[in-house]
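> call design_seq(struct)
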């Protein structure tokens, strides 16, 4: 019977456009799915978007759109990007789709019928950014995950009896493959051992979510809704026979791949929900580390994201795929830089597999009229040829073992050491010199050397296919072997390259990238980070004076005065200064990181002559939160800090005499 294989990415929040952090997980899953297909497994690869909850509702509000309209736009960005990258997902689930909403309600109902959901009152702190109930926190406390200030929630909720699952969960974790890597498994075990409290699984203070069945005043907690995508997408809760069949076939998932920050949701809540519903739990949850850029986690709120499109435009999808899987040790954090990307691209792709393919195939074209030669009689063989064959055999095994344990980087290292061995072999055997001679021994030696090189190239190409699908498909065609997708990986062995195969047209698959590639990508990112790129004067530090709009919706009062509606357009909020530092070579400017409740903003302000940076940390200030970003001295400034601007004097920051919560709006 054919083996089935079901793999999922997290479904991504639509409060931000995709960046290479999201691409990282998606690429890793895509690679695994592609390899499984080549191994003959009936594979299902799922990704999608997470569109409900307070965070999305607020993001939509800030963008002046309805949540649905906002989610439609952002979800399409993810879907289109994956298409452009050739991601091979079999489905794309959106949590606002009817099929999902209905099935989530069914899941909720099932757990409630089984007696694991009850009504109660929740009073406590909530982090909107992580959509997380923060146990034990007091009003004003920061979220332990992201450091943002939590909000106080007091509302009637539905609760899930998580406390009933402590022992059952610990039993699941006794299987070492259930949570990987081990560090994450240990963290989860100690968290669960320390005791589990029942978990609120509905909200009633806002409405952007799936209504609780039979009690629509409540919406289902966004994490309950989101986690359920893994079963709703493949047919759980459907009345259709086809969908039920699919669910029976694919569930439980073989791998949920996630970033390390959402381990608790996947390893504690999710299996507990499933157990409560009487469903099997996933076979494995695999957590990877974070992609760092400029030394911190790449994320929208830090403003340090790198867009995938930039890399696609300059180097192509294969370059990004290879880099991320080769450079980052899976499970650990890894840094991204354009320099490192281009370096890897040149050394491993252009000079590595790309060069091996062009030189080997070009020589076969030149010396054997484009037909794979016979490694004729035994006399033309030597020990070096056997070493390559042996290395290739070992690599097939080693690559498979490492890859199937998610050790992508080591697996690629192993495949590339085969490429390096062949490069060395070619240099040692000098086929170009052999090709200049006409005697029979030289011809047959040349045939052996080129056959051996081409066969090793074929094996490296098959192994690398799931990681660099585009380039390997091209190499395959150039080798005259047809469609690489049809290769059965289980049968891969040395010596299968058919003699006499007629090569196709040969051209470089990875042209070398020159130094300007780094600058071009950096430039493209800088341009993207700000709608208008301008090297402007330091931010004007002044009390806000909104200008009447050119075409006001409401009638404007006379004498240049503005209406209350005009004023309401300016979003003034209380912010807390987390970081303050001088900007090199700019006497007046400070770079601030300011928490505004929902996110931490970078703002540049011309107040360096009035305030020493260290005196500002922990101070509450007023900021204009909906000002279009702009660039100052190479930094993006995302808002404006409000101060009295004194003629000829130093600016004085607006502040409060009473304590005010961070994020509060001034109106
Ligand atoms: N919507 C939830 C997940 C629900 S799953 C049932 C969520 N969404 S998210 O948009 O914040 O995406 C988080 C995931 O994106 C991470 O778990 C990881 O897979 C990926 N990454 C986002 N930024 C990343 C990095 N900087 N580095 C590595 N992965 C990153 O959480």
């Amino acid at each position: 019977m054919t083996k089935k294989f079901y793999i999922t990415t997290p479904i991504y929040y639509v409060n931000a456009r995709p960046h290479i952090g999201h691409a990282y997980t998606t690429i890793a899953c895509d690679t695994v799915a592609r390899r499984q297909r080549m191994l003959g497994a009936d594979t299902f690869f799922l990704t999608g978007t997470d569109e409900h909850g307070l965070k999305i509702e607020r993001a939509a509000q800030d963008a002046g759109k309805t949540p649905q309209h906002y989610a439609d736009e952002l979800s399409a960005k993810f879907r289109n990007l994956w298409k452009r990258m050739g991601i091979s997902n079999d489905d794309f689930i959106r949590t606002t789709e009817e099929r999902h909403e209905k099935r989530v309600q069914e899941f909720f109902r099932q757990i409630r019928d089984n007696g694991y959901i009850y009504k109660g009152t929740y009073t406590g702190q909530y982090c909107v950014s992580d959509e997380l109930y923060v146990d034990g926190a007091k009003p004003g406390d920061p979220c332990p995950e992201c450091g943002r200030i939590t909000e106080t929630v007091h509302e009637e909720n539905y609760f899930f009896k998580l406390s009933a699952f402590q022992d059952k969960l610990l039993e699941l974790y006794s299987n070492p493959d259930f949570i990987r890597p081990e560090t994450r498994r240990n963290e989860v075990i100690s968290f669960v051992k320390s005791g589990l409290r029942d978990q609120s699984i509905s909200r009633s203070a806002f409405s952007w979510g799936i209504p609780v069945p039979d009690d629509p005043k409540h919406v289902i907690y966004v994490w309950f809704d989101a986690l359920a995508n893994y079963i709703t997408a493949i047919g759980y809760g459907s009345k259709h026979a086809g969908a039920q069949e699919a669910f029976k076939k694919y569930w439980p998932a073989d791998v949920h791949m996630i970033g390390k920050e959402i381990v608790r949701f996947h390893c504690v809540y999710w299996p507990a929900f499933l157990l409560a519903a009487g469903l099997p739990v996933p076979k494995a949850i695999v957590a990877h580390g974070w992609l760092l850029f400029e030394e911190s986690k790449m994320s929208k709120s830090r403003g340090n994201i790198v867009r995938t499109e930039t890399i696609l435009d300059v180097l192509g999808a294969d370059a990004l795929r290879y880099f991320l899987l080769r450079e980052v040790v899976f499970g650990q954090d890894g840094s991204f830089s354009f320099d490192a990307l281009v370096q890897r691209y040149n050394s491993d792709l252009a000079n590595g597999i790309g060069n091996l393919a062009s030189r080997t195939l070009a020589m076969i074209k030149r010396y054997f009229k484009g037909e794979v030669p016979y490694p004729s009689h035994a006399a033309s063989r030597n020990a070096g040829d056997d070493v390559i064959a042996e290395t290739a055999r070992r690599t097939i095994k080693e690559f498979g073992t490492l890859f199937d344990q998610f050790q992508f980087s080591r697996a690629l290292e192993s495949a590339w050491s085969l490429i390096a061995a062949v490069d060395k072999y070619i240099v040692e055997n000098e086929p170009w010199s052999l090709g200049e001679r006409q005697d029979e021994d030289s011809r047959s030696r040349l045939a052996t050397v080129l056959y051996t090189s081409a066969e090793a190239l074929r094996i490296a190409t098959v192994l690398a296919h799931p990681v660099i699908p585009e380039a390997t498909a091209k190499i395959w065609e150039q080798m005259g072997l047809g469609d690489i997708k049809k290769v059965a990986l289980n049968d891969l062995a040395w010596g299968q390259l058919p003699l006499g195969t007629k090569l196709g047209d040969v051209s470089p698959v990875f042209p070398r990238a020159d130094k300007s590639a780094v600058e071009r990508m950096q430039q493209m990112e800088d341009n993207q980070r700000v709608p208008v790129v301008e090297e402007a004067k330091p931010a004007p530090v002044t009390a806000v004076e909104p200008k009447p709009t050119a075409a006001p919706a409401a009638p404007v009062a006379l004498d240049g005065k503005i209406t209350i509606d005009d004023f309401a357009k300016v979003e003034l909020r209380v912010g807390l200064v987390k970081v303050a530092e001088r900007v090199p070579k700019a006497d007046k400017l400070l770079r601030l990181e300011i928490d505004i409740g929902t996110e931490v903003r970078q703002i540049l302000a011309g107040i360096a002559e009035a305030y020493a940076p260290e005196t500002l940390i922990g101070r509450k200030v007023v900021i204009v939160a909906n000002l279009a970003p702009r660039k100052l001295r190479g930094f993006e400034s995302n808002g404006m800090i409000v101060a009295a601007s004194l003629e000829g004097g130093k600016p004085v920051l607006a502040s409060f005499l009473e304590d005010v919560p961070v994020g509060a709006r001034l109106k």
